[in-house]
Specification:
- By secondary structure, the chain is α+β, with helices and mostly antiparallel strands.
- The protein contains 9 helices and 21 strands.
- Strand 15 and strand 16 form a beta hairpin.
- The longest helix is centred in the first third of the chain and has 21 residues.
- The radius of gyration is 21 Å and the shape is globular.
- 44% of the residues are buried.
- The N terminus and C terminus are likely disordered.
- Bound molecules: flavin-adenine dinucleotide.
């Protein structure tokens, strides 16, 4: 409770449903959002709640992109202090939204431990990232580790940290909850509906051309994940994202063992979801092996089922080594996702240079950042406020404007 108050305090933001500045227009602003991932869904909620006339179009189904394939760890681990403050504000925003929206966040914290000197250096560097914040990580002895989480058998510990503010969620469920509340505030969600073109008149956006017809719009928010560059090109703006694949093992369900995000030796990360399944991986990107060559170049599925199953079994076996209570659990499935990864790893948020009715919100860590981006994008798109906290993240830093038709 005390931690929640702290987090809400540092955010200085309003929870959904509290009073917001009056929306001084005769008719609500007509805002389109392209992309029904967690970022687009949060933006739809915040805009609809503030009185905008929102239509969100999604080419497949909600949460079908990076969001579905995300580890969905909510955290503030990053070296850049400004970006870290943004992440902390988003954690606070999640605390405000969790119960009202029924997000079901598991606020179990983050355990990171090392078995040798080289890994211990990384653990200490991770802990140092939170030094000087109001939520520093705590270094743990082996006895403290055991007292904190007896379900985990960590093996020899060269260093261990615990960060109490971290959480995790089911990203598909959370996206659906954001969209449900957005619809309660009058937003329309349309899928399958692919944005295929934009029409401008005298420099102002007038129409979205979609696979289900033309939609008149005054503003468009592009939250299209890895497809964002293709859509921004329609507005004359060139953007490149880094190709960043990642796979995750999902087990069958088992009784509750741990509520932590666990990050152990050998890069093994795992968590247990509210439904009892384990989710985990052991490598931020597919290892540089010939069998991964195609995946490391372009978005695709696993080339064959054998590779998928091999990764799944391999990762599950590693997790079982740290989680004795999971010995009997079987592999369910393995996902392969593609992070919307800006080339400098920082969010890209703001009006598109040369097409100011078009606004972009694309980022890695979009699950962590969705609530704060929803809040900030609402303020800017509705013209309530230019959000200074977004200054380092403007799309103009990648300036390479093509000729806008
Ligand atoms: C393996 C992995 C692990 C991750 N771990 C974490 C983590 O622990 N913590 C964290 O915070 N983040 C994590 N991320 C990143 C996070 O998942 C993403 O940043 C976030 O999901 C992005 O959400 P989004 O809504 O911007 O994009 P997406 O979820 O990709 O949604 C974009 C949507 O736009 C739709 N779309 C695209 N083009 C069009 C079009 N022309 N018309 C209509 N619709 C269109 C797509 O169908 C898609 O549904 C991870 C990602 C991966 C892949």
């Amino acid at each position: 409770m005390r931690r929640r108050q702290f987090l809400t305090g540092i955010a200085g933001i309003t929870a959904c449903g509290l009073s917001l500045p009056a929306f001084a227009r005769r008719a609500p602003l007509k805002v389109g959002i392209v992309g029904g991932g967690i970022v687009g869904a949060s933006i739809a909620l915040h805009l609809a709640e503030a009185g905008a006339d929102v239509v969100l179009f999604e080419k497949t189904a909600p949460a079908s992109g990076a969001t579905r394939n995300s580890f969905a760890w909510l955290n503030a681990f990053v070296a850049d202090r400004h970006y870290q403050a943004l992440r902390l504000r988003s954690l606070a925003a999640y605390h405000a939204l969790d119960v009202p929206l029924g997000l079901g966040i598991i606020w179990g914290g983050y355990l990171n431990w090392a078995r040798d000197a080289a890994e211990a250096q990384i653990v200490r560097a991770n802990a140092a990232q939170l030094d000087g914040t109001r939520f520093p990580a705590r270094m743990l002895s082996a006895a403290e580790f055991a007292a904190l989480d007896s379900a985990i058998e960590p093996g020899p510990i060269a260093a261990a940290l615990f960060s109490s503010i971290d959480g995790h969620l089911d990203p598909v469920w959370a996206t659906e909850r954001f969209l449900r509340r957005a619809r309660q505030h009058g937003a329309h969600t349309v899928y399958p509906c692919e944005l295929q073109g934009l029409r401008f008149h005298q420099g102002r956006l007038t129409t979205a051309l979609t696979s289900t017809g033309e939609i008149p719009l005054e503003r468009l928010v592009v939250a299209a994940g890895v497809d964002t560059p293709r859509i921004l090109a329609m507005a004359g703006f060139e953007l490149q994202l880094r190709h960043a694949p990642g796979f995750l093992m999902h087990s069958m369900s088992l009784p509750a063992l741990t509520n932590r995000i666990c990050d152990g030796p050998g890069g093994v990360e795992f968590k247990q979801m509210a439904d009892g399944t384990l989710v985990g991986g052991d490598s931020p990107e597919p290892p540089d092996l010939p069998v991964h060559a195609a995946i490391r170049e372009r978005a695709m599925d696993f080339p064959d089922e054998a590779l998928r199953a091999w990764h799944g079994t391999r990762v599950l076996d590693k997790i079982k080594a740290f989680l004795p209570g999971a010995q009997a659990v079987a592999l369910d499935h393995v996902t392969l996702g593609f992070r919307p990864m800006p080339t400098d790893a920082l969010p890209i948020v703001g009006a598109v240079p040369g097409a100011t009715d078009v606004y972009v919100a694309v980022t890695h860590s979009g699950v962590t950042l969705a609530p704060i981006l929803g809040d900030y994008v609402r303020r800017e798109v509705l013209g309530e406020q230019k959000v200074d906290a977004l200054t380092p993240y403007r799309p103009g830093r990648f300036m390479a404007v093509l000729r806008k038709s």
